[in-house]
Specification:
- About 40% of the residues lie in helices and about 30% in strands.
- It is an alpha+beta fold.
- It has one domain: 2-Layer Sandwich (Alpha-Beta Plaits).
- It has a four-stranded antiparallel beta sheet with strand order 2-3-1-4.
- The longest helix has 18 residues.
Length: about 100
């Protein structure tokens, strides 16, 4: 079982004030290709997995957005860590019909 949930919002600085969506899409591609369980929401994406792996994905997301053309990136991150295990499904099951 996973030991962490990590939610991230990427806020890239774009050249000439361009739309940020293509940059955010690039960051989400990094998550999608990582293979970790994730859920994309309107303002952030939540991942489930081992903390070290999730933090490495955050690093790769920032690098990918920079390589895509962003001069700097703010990453707002929230982490729930529980060595005994944690899951998105268990945490939110009472809110589902």
């Amino acid at each position: 079982m996973a030991n962490a949930l990590l939610s991230i919002q990427i806020i890239p600085k774009t050249p000439n004030g361009e739309d940020v969506i293509p940059y955010v899409d690039r960051a989400i591609e990094v998550i999608q290709t990582s293979g970790v369980k994730h859920q994309v929401n309107a303002l952030e994406t939540t991942m489930e997995g081992e903390l070290a792996e999730l933090l490495d994905i955050v690093r790769r997301m920032n690098e990918a957005v920079h390589e895509f053309g962003s001069g700097s990136i703010i990453s707002q991150v929230k982490i729930l860590y529980n060595p005994d295990g944690v899951s998105m499904d268990k945490l939110t099951e009472k809110y589902r019909p």
